[in-house]
Amino acid sequence: APGLDALGEDVRRKVAEHPCYSEGAHHHFARMHAAVAPACNIQCNYCNRKFDCSNESRPGVVSEVLTPDQAVLKTLAVAAAIPQMSVLGIAGPGDPLANPERTFAVFRELAVKAPDLKLCVSTNGLALPEHVEELARLKVDHVTITINCLDPDIGAKIYPWIFWNHRRVRGREAAEILIAQQQKGLEMLVERGILVKVNSVMIPGINDQHLAEVSRHVRAKGAFLHNVMPLIAAPEHGTYFGLTGQRSPSPQELQALQDECAGDMNMMRHCRQCRADAVGLLGEDRSSEFSLAKIAGME
Ligand code: SF4
Ligand code: SF4
């Protein structure tokens, strides 16, 4: 895997100050997620819409959706209170790029009001290509794409449908479109020097044998970091494919896959699958200190 020393100064700085991109940074730099994006444009079989987007978050977590104005207010309050706060990310509770007006309203305001904050977004990738220009213009330095497969036959088992050109597309065709959009988005981001992290959800029996190939492929295309996350299958989060039998990978299976990928790729192993409204250092959650009521009181 490429070492940090091989990177240019600009990339090194982007990496060093983002707690998710650099394991060393995660004790020193904090991030905040602003939960402004309720809608989603696809359906993942592992998602329960009552909870935060499982592409980034541990299932079973419900974040309160903020308006863009509320999110800006909260971000400025958090940045004032937590000096290590270096990154503002938008990661849900749905797909940030399926809510482009809301997501970009926050980025636009913060680019003016908090120009030192690094901006970060995570997405399933379906709407990514049409937004890459705007992300680059607003100096969004970090983008996470959740890529669970390259093979549409596997994709058809993960995604029952996507919403595309004003209609619902199902099955293999849906997976084909989503995969093509993800790959195109990845290429466009890399061309513009935006750092890309790829998240993959490891689903035993579905894509577990396929993810090492995904890892090699996205690395060859210039993704910076790969984060393989375990499917967290629990009855209260709903079923998978409408079946109750889908299991999570064991910690050993997850680690074996991460080790296999690590030969070729920078792997993230400190992901905490944070809430869409997480605040603070990774592994601590201070979001309750910054409820809207409290922020209104700080003004
Ligand atoms: Fe759910 Fe996220 Fe998948 Fe949308 S992209 S269906 S919010 S897990
Ligand atoms: Fe970072 Fe993982 Fe948390 Fe996202 S979910 S902010 S990648 S630690």
UniProtKB/TrEMBL annotation:
Name the needed cofactors: [4Fe-4S] cluster
* Top-level lineage group: Bacteria
Pathway of action: Cofactor biosynthesis; Fe-Mo cofactor biosynthesis
List keywords of the entry alphabetically: 4Fe-4S, Iron, Iron-sulfur, Lyase, Metal-binding, Nitrogen fixation, S-adenosyl-L-methionine
Q: Name one GO molecular function term.
A: 4 iron, 4 sulfur cluster binding
Radical SAM core domain: which residues? 22-275
The record describes the protein's role as:
Involved in the biosynthesis of the iron-molybdenum cofactor (FeMo-co or M-cluster) found in the dinitrogenase enzyme of the nitrogenase complex in nitrogen-fixing microorganisms. NifB catalyzes the crucial step of radical SAM-dependent carbide insertion that occurs concomitant with the insertion of a 9th sulfur and the rearrangement/coupling of two [4Fe-4S] clusters into a [8Fe-9S-C] cluster, the precursor to the M-cluster.
Give the similarity note.
Belongs to the radical SAM superfamily. NifB family.
The protein's name in its UniProt record: FeMo cofactor biosynthesis protein NifB
Q: What is the lineage of its organism?
A: Bacteria, Pseudomonadati, Pseudomonadota, Betaproteobacteria, Rhodocyclales
- Quote the range of the complete protein represented: 25 to 323 of 534
